[in-house]
């Protein structure tokens, strides 16, 4: 059974998810079947026909949020040659899906509230912010596209792990790393904050001032 989260009645995403599920299930069945040549042709045709009927039935139905909000809304779509597609859909508004998930993490710095980090470090600005900005200002002022060009993902993850574990080699790593990786680490830190810098509580006031 495939479970699908329908965000604001996105029918295309529903169809794409179902098509992927049908293809994966069909391929797994084909690989385990013997002999492969005749069975492969049979199930390929069955999978294509089944998917066509599933898609046709979905497109004929209106995915009204009011009809799919119930917790356990299930629907048997169709069965063919022993293959049955069954799925459930639950509606969630885009506003809810875009909200940040509160983090329970207390160690490290990534994914931890700024006030928790600054209280632990006894400073007004987190150490990671100060060190990254200092390094960028030292070596990156003349760089083109700073904070825009992406750094190497492995370098960013290495710096993230170093700041999270408070390793003593952070300063050496910063001096050796490409400046775009350092800028990328700082952007990642802000992106993973459980609450944005413009806090939810003060956001309306900021918007009024624009």
TrEMBL record:
Coiled coil: none
Domain Rho-GAP: 112-210
Alphabetized SMART domains for the sequence: RhoGAP (SM00324)
Domain of life: Eukaryota
Pfam families named in the record: RhoGAP
Gene name tied to this protein: ABR
Gene3D superfamilies to which the protein is assigned, alphabetical: Rho GTPase activation protein (1.10.555.10)
GO molecular function terms attached to this record: GTPase activator activity
Gene Ontology terms: cellular component: membrane
Any one Gene Ontology BP term: signal transduction
PROSITE patterns assigned: RHOGAP
Protein name as it appears in the record: ABR activator of RhoGEF and GTPase
